[in-house]
Write a structure and sequence with these properties.
By secondary structure, the chain is α/β, with parallel strands linked by helices. Among the domains are: 62 residues, no CATH class; 78 residues, Rossmann fold, CATH 3.40.50; 76 residues, no CATH class; 176 residues, Ribonuclease Inhibitor (Leucine-rich repeat, LRR (right-handed beta-alpha superhelix)). It contains 25 helices and 22 strands. The strands form 4 sheets. The chain has a 9-stranded mixed sheet, with no helix packed on it. It is flat.
């Protein structure tokens, strides 16, 4: 028989697997990989959710060039028994080359039994339709589906395939029994009725107030993609969500398992059987696999109590674990046991890790172990030889890749992470610059995943999706506070913040203050002694640098009476810090780049102040409070071109500032009006201001307002 003859037999009984399997045998006799594909997809239909079969199918499609080049967001192929049954192209904006995307798919030999080819597109494509028509099987036409807006059409066709909704999903959405594409914007909730629809794609873009997706929606077995731009209320990563759905589609995951694994992705703790959790170990998304292992750990309490590992035991490792394989093997061999990677007759225990590729479903009642059950083996002996925590902590903070790797190896060999070293290890995970130095940070991630308390791991995964060291001070404080709220009993948060200040903030070195890592968190959560220590790290000589720390108020500096200079620029201050009057030696104060709009009427108690920088704030008029500063010599009230400071005139009270020598009051391109009384300020040496005119030279009228000898710029 020929391929054509086999296809004719298949068409006569298109829903009967027998002729497909006959064709598969015929192909495999000729070493054609298409035959293997038919067998695998038939087996996957009999065993839905089997990650091992799904992975082999995917690998075969890629190896043979049968997988489409277009992303799942754009193109969906539904396969059955080695043939493509339906094709969906989602080109809602009409930007794609329809012929270029569909042409290569329709030319595959597996496209001979296509029953439908649909393009979701808001606009026609007649040229491509004509070119693609000859490539489709007889009787199959390229179908165009355009959106139906519920806002415009009160009674749309119940057979609509693509519906667009804005503001609210109507209660009667369930009447669209053929709906494949639902596009929503601005909605606050998704009704459970959506879960009864045969959706293939769901768009919920710009739904800022949407806080959850019902389990019924996650359970839609045909759903393959969710677009969720600007849906921060969901707290989900769109890449992870669609990686999850892609795995569901490839493995034909049943409804109940889909709902379970979606719940794991969202950090929930659903009721699950051991079998369901074992299936979840093959999930595409690491978050789901990690959460499944955590729940399995609770279900498999003390599996070694009834059948301990000893001499003659054979432990089969299925999947990957965080522990270094050499260390794991050495630990098991030290007990007289053997480690293998396959389940055989002599296997006594099974050690499960992530992605066991379906091997976890046929274990013949063998005791199941997880990595955490094994880490305590021979721990006591290893702990006796482990270096002291103080030395390990110093190595972890060294920024030397060799020392970091050595410290991690020592902790791994001793069977865990000392609680007092969790802050150091956390900072290694957060320091992305270590990637350039070697593999230390990567090994630290594995160690943390293997040995850190589950509660802490979940909190870190939720609040530290990006490095906290790269965030601004306010975001840092918020994320550290959230971490402490959820896992503060697992990690010493105050010590963690102190290490951040020492290693990455004010205490990082004698010559460079760097950022204020952890500084704002200590100010808001620390005790008095900790706050004074943190402030001390910002002091060099008689100067304290508090710039760029996103401070809303200045901390109490009365404990440092010898300070002469304070730089509090580029913060979020809205009120002048009158508490500074308690500093008897203060001579220079920089408050530029804040949000000040006014000053107190009297600042006379700042008698020693000589230099005051108030530039780039939000003054709309000259702050008269500065005229009460008796010894002020330099004053800067300038703004940048785009700033909000718009002082257009100087009051005559400025003549009372008998010590003022330098005045800067530039205002972008807006001229500043000066009072005639300034001509009597014989002590003024320099004025830097803005005037009208394009010549670049100050007008003569402006010079007449200034005292003799005052330099104008």
């Amino acid at each position: 028989m020929s391929v054509k003859a086999h296809l004719e037999q298949i068409r006569k009984s298109i829903d009967d697997p027998a002729p497909y399997l006959v064709f598969a045998d015929w192909l495999q006799e000729r070493d054609d990989p298409w035959g293997r594909l038919i067998v695998l997809q038939h087996e996957l239909e009999r065993r839905p959710g089997d990650g091992a079969i799904a992975a082999e199918v995917e690998a075969l499609l890629k190896k043979q060039g049968w997988a489409p080049q277009a992303k799942p967001k754009l193109l969906r192929l539904d396969w059955r028994w080695g043939f493509i049954r339906s094709v969906r192209l989602y080109d809602e904006f009409g930007h794609e080359d329809v012929e270029g995307v569909l042409g290569p798919v329709l030319e595959l030999p597996m496209a001979a039994l296509i029953q439908s080819c649909v393009v979701f597109r808001d606009g026609r494509f007649d040229g491509a339709r004509k070119k693609l028509a000859p490539k489709l099987p007889p009787g199959v036409a390229l179908e165009l589906i355009e959106p139906v807006s519920l806002a415009e059409d009160k009674e749309p066709d119940p057979g609509a395939r693509w519906v667009a909704v804005q503001g609210k999903v109507p209660a009667g959405i369930g009447r669209f029994e053929r709906l494949a594409f639902l596009s929503c914007s601005g909605i606050r909730s998704l009704p459970k009725a959506v879960g009864a629809l045969p959706l293939e794609r769901l768009d919920i873009d710009w739904c800022f107030e949407l806080s959850s997706i019902p389990d019924e929606v996650w359970g839609i077995e045909s759903l393959g993609y969710i677009s969720m731009y600007d849906c921060d209320g969901l707290g989900l990563n769109m890449g992870q969500v669609n990686n999850l759905l892609l795995g569901f589609t490839r493995a034909r995951t049943p409804r109940t398992q889909r709902v379970l694994e979606a719940a794991l992705l969202q950090g929930r703790t659903p009721k699950a059987s051991t079998e369901q959790l074992l299936y979840a170990l093959d999930n595409n998304v690491k978050t789901v696999r990690t959460r499944a292992l955590e729940l399995l750990e609770k279900q498999l309490e003390s599996p070694l109590a009834q059948r301990p590992i000893g001499r003659g035991s054979v432990v089969a490792l299925l999947g990957s674990v965080n522990m270094d394989t050499k260390s794991l093997r050495a630990r098991i061999e030290a007990l007289g046991a053997k480690l293998t990677t396959k389940v055989a007759k002599q296997t006594s225990h099974v050690l499960l890790g992530e992605r066991p590729r379906g091997k976890q479903h046929d274990l013949r009642g063998l005791p199941l172990l997880l990595e955490r059950h094994v880490v305590g083996l021979a721990q006591a002996e290893a702990a006796q030889e482990a270096p002291p925590p103080a030395r390990l902590g110093k190595d972890l903070r060294s920024r030397d890749d060799a020392k970091i790797r050595g410290a991690i190896q020592s902790m791994e060999q001793s069977g865990g992470i000392p609680t007092e070293l969790l802050p150091e290890l956390f900072l290694v995970l957060q320091d992305t610059s270590l990637e350039k130095l070697g593999k230390g940070r990567k090994l630290a991630k594995k160690l943390f995943a293997a040995y850190a308390p589950a509660k802490l791991r979940r909190a870190v995964a939720r609040h530290m999706k990006t490095s906290v060291l790269l965030a601004g001070e306010t975001k840092q404080a918020e994320r550290l506070t959230a971490l402490g709220r959820e896992a503060g009993d697992q990690i010493d948060m105050r010590r963690l913040a102190r290490l951040m200040v020492e290693d990455f903030g004010g205490g990082a070195g004698p010559d460079s203050l760097g950022s204020g890592c952890g500084f704002k968190y200590i100010l808001s959560r620390g005790e008095a002694a900790e706050i004074q220590w943190a402030l001390g790290t910002r002091i060099r000589g008689k100067r304290i640098d508090l710039s760029g720390l996103e401070l809303d108020t200045l901390p109490d500096l009365s404990g440092f009476p010898g300070l002469e200079e304070i730089d509090a620029s580029n913060n979020h201050l809205t009120h002048f810090p009158v508490e500074l009057r308690a500093l008897p030696a203060l001579r220079a104060l920089d408050l530029s780049g804040n949000y000040l709009r006014s000053l107190p009427r009297s600042l006379a108690r700042l008698a020693t102040l000589r230099t005051l920088d108030l530039s780039c704030n939000r003054f709309q008029t000259f702050p008269r409070g500065v005229t009460t500063l008796p010894g002020l010599r330099e004053l800067d009230l300038s703004s940048d071109t785009w700033g909000e400071t718009r002082i257009t005139s100087v009051p005559k009270e400025i003549v009372s500032m008998t010590s003022l020598e330098v005045l800067r009051i530039e205002n972008g391109r807006v001229a500043v009006e000066l009072p005639e009384e300034m001509s009597a300020m014989t002590w003024l040496k320099q004025l830097k201001t803005t005037w009208e005119g394009a010549s670049g030279k100050p007008p003569a009228a402006l010079r007449k307002l200034l005292p003799p000898g005052c330099r104008l710029s």
